[in-house]
Amino acid sequence: MRPPPPPLNSAPLDPGLYVVSTPIGNLRDITLRALDILSSSDLVLAEDTRVAQKLLSVYEVSRPVERYDDHCDARVRPKVLEVLAQGGRVALMSDAGTPLVSDPGYRLVKAAVEAGAPVYAAPGPSAALAALAVSGLPSDRFLFAGFTPPKSTGRRAIFQELSSVRATLIFYETGPRLTDSLSDMLMVWGDREAVVARELTKLYETVLRGRLSELIERLGAQAPRGEIVVLVGPGSEAPATPADVDQALIEALSLSSLSDAAATVAKALGLNRKTVYRRALELKSERADKE
Ligand code: SAM
Questions:
Q1: Contact (CB, 8 A) for 229 and 208
Q2: Least confident of 86-90, 95-99, 248-252
Q3: 178 in Cβ contact with 196 (< 8 Å)
Q4: Cα separation of 83 and 64, whole Å?
Q5: How many angstroms is it from 227 CA to the middle of ligand 1?
Q6: Does the CB atom of residue 230 touch ligand 1 within 6 A?
Q7: Ligand 1 within 6 A of 23 CB?
Q8: Which of 80, 93, 125, 204 is the most exposed, having the fewest neighbouring CB atoms within 10 Å of its CB?
Q9: 36 lines ligand 1 (CB under 6 A)
Q10: Mean per-residue pLDDT of the chain
Q11: Is 262:234 a contact under the CB 8 Å cutoff?
Q12: What is the tens place of the pLDDT at every residue in 188-208?
């Protein structure tokens, strides 16, 4: 149903660049201030002008909209700085959520700051924070790491880099590479608590919570559709028990060679590599005896 346009604030808008957050799914997740700003701007910059026009028309906002993304930055940025220098009001929005968060805007905001133009935030939705808020994972410290790299080697390198970070880690992910990504996380970090938050605020919103190995099993081979945030809890600071080591080794051995599995588990649990290697050998021969 089309929401009725809310009453707008008639106070004049101060000149400057406004970074405006927009809904990540549910169109009603727009703030009244975002609508005030959009309807009083001399120029609205949007990643995709059709997506922006759709949102603006729902709220009966009619302002000039121009495309702005990293590809046209060099052409559009000088024009925008000129509008700002003349005391104009420019609103920057992306297709969804908060501009600059895995979206264009950084170069423009930096240039506006350097030019001494006022820059204001109109805060609102962002998938990373929405997912953190419902995850049930520790929220006192978190690190947003953007999209995971498309290839496994790149992903594992980034995950290794983040191994010692004691915070909930947040990634943007795509459906087709979700399970590969979760398997790489399991390889590098062991079986941490994780959450897959899909299609937040939309009709098919789903939030899966569990250990990485459980999530991989539940997701199966079929790539989920839609937009996805993956969150991974901080590694445990309590020393790993022998049962933890065995569990992590069994999972790692199913994905890689004995020496790789031992190295990964030793690193993830902060243990001596030779000791873990010896235990991996024992587990392997125990399994061979049973077969
Ligand atoms: N700037 C946006 C923000 O603040 O959330 C993010 C833009 S980024 C190009 C798009 C990615 O955000 C998607 O691929 C997905 O990982 C995540 N995302 C956006 N909307 C989402 C939603 N409704 N549910 C889950 N993830 C979402």
A1: no
A2: 248-252
A3: yes
A4: 13
A5: 6
A6: no
A7: no
A8: 204
A9: no
A10: 93
A11: no
A12: 999 999 999 999 999 999 999
Architecture field, domain 128-232: 2-Layer Sandwich (3.30)
How many Å lie between the centroid of ligand 1 and the Cα of residue 59?
A: 22
C-alpha 198 to ligand 1 mean position (Å):
9
CA angle 30, 33, 34 (to 5 degrees): 50
Pocket of ligand 1 contains residue 228 by CB under 6 Å: yes
Between the CA of 205 and the centroid of ligand 1 the distance, in Å, is: 13
Ligand 1 atom at minimum distance from 173 CA = 16
Q: What is the distance in A from the centroid of ligand 1 to the CA of 97?
A: 7
Helix/strand/coil for 92: strand
Alpha carbons 138 and 173: distance in angstroms, whole number = 20
- pLDDT tens digit string along 125-161? 999 999 999 999 999 999 999 999 999 999 999 999 9
Residue carrying the six token digits 């790489």: 184
Contact 91, 36 (CB under 8 A): no
Q: Which of 72, 44, 77, 47 is nearest to 59 (CA)?
A: 44
Asked: is 16-125 a CATH 3.40.50.720 domain? The reply is no
